[in-house]
Design goal:
Layout: H1 2-16, E1 21-29, E2 32-41, H2 44-47, H3 54-91, E3 94-103, E4 108-118, H4 124-133, H5 137-151, E5 160-164, H6 167-172, H7 174-180, E6 187-191, H8 200-209, E7 214-221, H9 225-234, E8 238-241, H10 243-246, H11 253-269, E9 272-275, H12 281-289, E10 294-295, H13 306-311, H14 317-328
Parallel strand pairs: 4-5, 5-6, 6-7, 7-8, 8-9, 9-10
Antiparallel strand pairs: 1-2, 3-4, 3-10
Helix pairs in contact: 3-4, 4-5, 5-7
Amino acid sequence: MGATSGGRRVRVRYAATGLKATAYAPIVGKDGPIGLLVVGTSDPVRADRLADQIPALVEFAPTARLLLEKPLQVRHELARSRTRIEAIIAAGAFHPVFQPLVHLATRRPIGYEALTRFNDGTPPDLVFADARRCGLERELESVTLRAAVAASGELPTGSSLSLNVSPAFILAGDELRGILAARTRPIVLEVTEHDSIDDYGALRSAFVALGSGLRLAVDDAGAGVANFNHLVELRPQFVKIDIGLVRGVNADLTRQALIVALLHFASATDCHVVAEGIETEAERAVVEKLEVQFGQGYLFGRPADASTWAAAEAPSPRRRSAALRSISGGRQRHG
């Protein structure tokens, strides 16, 4: 039915051009037809003889396949991705979850990072990569950020909220400013090393223009050269150590040395260090011994709905306020 109606639309389109006759030959790819070769004429005299061109069309089709198969497949894949992402956005087929960021000395949550889970179970990095390829990253980023800010109202009072935001979305300005207007708690915007930044000065200006009460974090520190450029150029308030450095750090002196170097940078630039991906007590013990203040990972809690954290036992106000002061008032020193 779909193929028939599609063919009818094509014929109507050609008829509108004044063609009196057309002939078709399929371009067949590895997985089936990927296109059509078409010849046509607007000359009524030649229309009767157009069928004579079909053998030539069929002979040329394999050559056309070599020229067109790859770009056509890319185009089809992008179209499928776009349709899928548009459907996700329209249906709201996702939900925010939150993972605690804890003060390692007390293990008390002082903030939560917002993450997105998609209803069909597709890993979020793959969905956002698809959105980026088909030109819908900004639209997907917008709806997921709005959902995260709205859901964060259920998180424990006094905790901060970390949002993963692309440099392009920060540069866009107005849309992000509107989303952040609904915030009810301190906000940390996280930029990862996977996002390229062409103009650091413009990004710094755009961040400042978002208003007061916001802090900046560089995610995945130590994951690549671009990330170190982020650290130097953005001067963030938080440096989040990449999970690749934390995993197995208790048995690897090289990883420990790299973390010490990041701690030295943090001390010199008055920012905080967060160790991501802590899964074992051994990893926690080592990063705490190295004087990393804050941690995040499955050891302290897996991503969950805001209501899950709201139902958890609330930390004492005095301990939480002390931890929050260390975030908002500069790097906490160890004796």
